[in-house]
């Protein structure tokens, strides 16, 4: 037990160290890829609050990713927000959208939940596409990311990729840590209980509707934060951030990583972001390879990559007769 | 002819094509509890197979028989080799599997036939227009209407008037009980998946010349398709017919009056049905 815990802390420390020295290890071009991985890790972690821990399949989380992305660009453009306040504004607007949709969605489960979330996503997509004067329609909107100004300290230039990388690392690590502690809070635990047995939770006296609604909003908030980071990173936002393909992407990232384990979605986000990049430079027909990888994963690793790793680890322990700590 | 009447006919034709696709999908859903994302890809395959058959033999009617059979066998292969194995892992796995299959099929089509839209040659008897109700209307669209109605009649008769139909409907409603009575439920799954894909193939063959044959055609119709089966009620053939026509008319009149908001209307309808009557218009609550 204690030995295991020491290993976990060492692993975590190693990861932080790796994130800290990353700009020295890879070129600036590659650093962009790492930023992408970090942002998608946050989306997947936020989404997994519903899919993995809550057992709710949402087809519409691009609505929040896109909402965050649009909000950030729009507040930079029209009101001259600084970087951090822009990201926060994205999160808050996404959470508000989550309240609006969640009021209807929190009543449902299973397939009706999935399809209504899809319908809401499609509605918000249509708004983003047709409201040209505000959102730029299909062409999208571009805006240089502002500098990070901290009151009483001055401002940090965010044009440099390395500086922006550290900013993303700090935001993503803080958010993911919050999501981790959330699983330990009473609300986070009821979330899992709701997945396992909704009837019993209501017998104990919890208000299922409010619990679902709260968790839905929190999940929406983190996906919106990630969206705001993504558009600040790209310095551009278009309907590609809010369409149904993006929703499918978010689902796939999370599932491929492994929804049953907290850090699984991070693995999926990193793996698929890397894979997309590698395959699209390698071959024109990357969809076939990607499709084949899905099919193989679904058939032979139903718990995702994280499940695969844990199973291999257990197998190795058994193979070499190492007592589990 | 009155413009209103033409629009109603347009909507009816598109709606019946949607019904043709949705009928297979809704039965598969009723039985297997899974949304088959590959259904759109099967529809697209039907259109491309038909293109090739017409190219080689010059026979559109032959392609109407061969192409759906090919698509049906691909569907059965998919069910037997992939879906059946994944069934135990739950809905999301099945869903992602059909995602993966759709990805692969779409790309295979791009490799074999290219990304350019293709034009299937239709026989002389179906080209041109017919004068009905004091106006001209393209024969081909009327042909779609006739084929769809024939398929609906065929499905309806089999499902509601034959012993096979009773077994299938029973399996859709309570598969454990049907299995306990000694019927081979996995075989019913397999055959139904085949028939569903066969229907998608037919829709592809007749829909290809109407909505142009291109690699994105499956993905383009998939959303309308999901709206139809949900609004109609999952597992309900009559519901698929009603919702198909409803969506067809919304499209046709929406394009006439408010082209910007067609999708908005469709999704509003979907959202309203899910909020107020989650089992769908003609679906049974479970």
Characterization of the model:
The complex is a heterodimer of chains A (about 325) and B (about 290). In chain A, about 75% of the residues lie in helices and about 5% in strands. Chain A has helices spanning about 1-25, 30-55, 60-80, 85-105, 110-130, 130-135, 160-180, 185-195, 200-205, 210-235, 245-255, 265-280, 285-300, 305-320; strands at about 140, 150, 155, 235. With about 325 residues, chain A is mainly alpha-helical. A two-stranded antiparallel ribbon of chain A has the order 1-4. Chain A has a two-stranded antiparallel ribbon with strand order 2-3. In chain A, helix 8 crosses helix 10, helix 11 crosses helix 12 and helix 12 (about 265-280) packs across helix 14 (about 305-320). Chain B has about 290 residues and is mostly helical. Chain B has one domain (about 5-275): Orthogonal Bundle (ABC transporter involved in vitamin B12 uptake, BtuC). Chain B is about 75% helix and about 5% strand. Chain B has a two-stranded antiparallel sheet with strand order 1-2. In chain B, helix 3 packs antiparallel against helix 4. The chains are: A mainly alpha (about 325), B mainly alpha (about 290). The interface between A and B is medium-sized, with 33 and 37 residues.
Radius of gyration of chain B equals: 19 Å
> Uncertain segments of chain A of ≥5 residues (pLDDT<50)?
none
CATH architecture grouping of chain B = Orthogonal Bundle
> Largest chain-chain contact?
A-B, 33 and 37 residues
What is the strand arrangement across the widest sheet of chain A?
1-4
- Poorly predicted regions of chain B are none
Q: So what's the overall shape of chain A?
A: globular
Q: Report strand % of chain B.
A: under 5%
Question: What's the overall geometry of chain B?
Answer: globular
Structural class of chain A: mainly alpha
Order of helices and strands of chain B: HHHHEEHHHHHHH
- Termini Cα gap of chain A: 5 Å
Tell me how many strands of chain B there are: 2
Give the averaged pLDDT of chain A, no decimals: 87
The total count of strands of chain A amounts to 4
Rounded Rg of chain A: 20 Å
Helix content of chain B: over 70%
Order of helices and strands of chain A: HHHHHHEEEHHHHEHHHH
Count up the domains of chain B.
Answer: 1
> If you average the pLDDT of chain B, what whole number results?
85
């Amino acid at each position: 037990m204690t030995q295991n815990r020491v290993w976990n802390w060492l692993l975590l420390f190693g990861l932080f160290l790796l994130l800290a020295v990353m700009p020295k290890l890879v070129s600036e071009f590659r650093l962009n890829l790492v930023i992408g991985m970090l942002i998608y890790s946050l989306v997947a972690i936020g989404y997994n609050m519903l899919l993995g821990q809550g057992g709710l399949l949402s087809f519409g989380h691009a609505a929040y990713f896109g909402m965050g992305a649009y909000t950030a660009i729009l507040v930079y453009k029209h009101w001259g927000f600084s970087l951090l306040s822009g990201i926060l504004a994205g999160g808050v607007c996404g959470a508000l959208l989550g309240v609006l949709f969640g009021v209807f969605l929190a009543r449902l489960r299973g397939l009706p939940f999935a399809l209504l979330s899809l319908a809401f996503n499609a509605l918000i997509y249509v708004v983003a596409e047709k409201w040209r004067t505000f959102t730029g329609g299909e062409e999208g909107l571009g805006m240089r990311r502002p500098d990070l100004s901290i009151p009483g300290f001055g401002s940090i230039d965010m044009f440099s990729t390395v500086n922006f990388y550290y900013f993303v690392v700090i935001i993503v690590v803080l958010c993911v840590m919050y999501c981790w502690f959330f699983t330990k809070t009473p609300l986070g635990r009821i979330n899992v209980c709701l997945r396992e047995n909704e009837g019993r939770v209501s017998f104990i006296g919890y208000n299922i509707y409010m619990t679902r609604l709260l968790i839905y909003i929190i999940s929406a908030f983190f996906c919106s934060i990630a969206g705001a980071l993504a558009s600040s990173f790209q310095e551009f936002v278009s309907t590609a951030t809010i369409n149904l393909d993006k929703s499918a992407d978010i689902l796939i990232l999370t599932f491929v990583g492994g929804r049953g384990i907290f850090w699984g979605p991070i693995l999926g986000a990193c793996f698929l972001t890397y894979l997309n990049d590698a395959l699209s430079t390698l071959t024109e027909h990357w969809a076939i390879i990607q499709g084949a990888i899905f099919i193989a994963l679904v058939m032979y690793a139903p718990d995702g990559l994280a499940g695969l790793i844990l199973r291999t680890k257990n197998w190795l322990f058994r193979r070499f007769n190492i007592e589990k700590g | 002819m009155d413009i209103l009447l033409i629009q109603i006919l347009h909507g009816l034709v598109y709606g019946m094509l949607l019904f043709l696709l949705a009928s297979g999908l809704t039965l598969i859903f009723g039985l297997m509890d899974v949304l088959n994302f590959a259904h759109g890809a099967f529809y697209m395959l039907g259109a491309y197979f038909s293109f090739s058959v017409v190219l080689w033999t010059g026979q559109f009617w032959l392609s109407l028989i061969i192409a759906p059979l090919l698509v049906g066998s691909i569907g059965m292969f998919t069910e037997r080799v992939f879906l059946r194995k994944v069934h135990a892992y739950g809905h999301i796995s099945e869903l992602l599997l059909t995602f993966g299959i759709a990805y692969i099929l779409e790309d295979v089509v791009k490799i074999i036939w290219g990304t350019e839209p293709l034009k299937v040659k239709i026989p002389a008897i179906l080209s041109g227009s017919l004068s009905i109700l004091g106006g001209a209307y393209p024969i081909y669209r009327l042909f779609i209407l006739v084929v769809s109605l024939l398929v609906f009649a065929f499905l309806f008769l089999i499902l509601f008037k034959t012993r096979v139909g009773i077994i299938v409907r029973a399996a859709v409603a309570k598969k454990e009980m049907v299995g306990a009575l000694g019927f081979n439920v996995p075989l019913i799954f397999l055959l139904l998946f085949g028939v569903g894909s066969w229907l998608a193939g037919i829709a592809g063959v007749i829909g290809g010349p109407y909505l142009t044959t291109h690699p994105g055609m499956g993905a383009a119709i998939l959303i309308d398709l999901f709206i139809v089966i949900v609004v109609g009620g999952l597992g309900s053939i009559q519901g698929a017919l009603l919702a198909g026509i409803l969506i067809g008319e919304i499209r046709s009149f929406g394009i006439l009056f408010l082209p910007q908001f067609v999708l908005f209307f469709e999704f509003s309808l979907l959202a309203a049905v899910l909020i107020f009557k989650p089992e769908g218009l003609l679906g049974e609550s479970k």
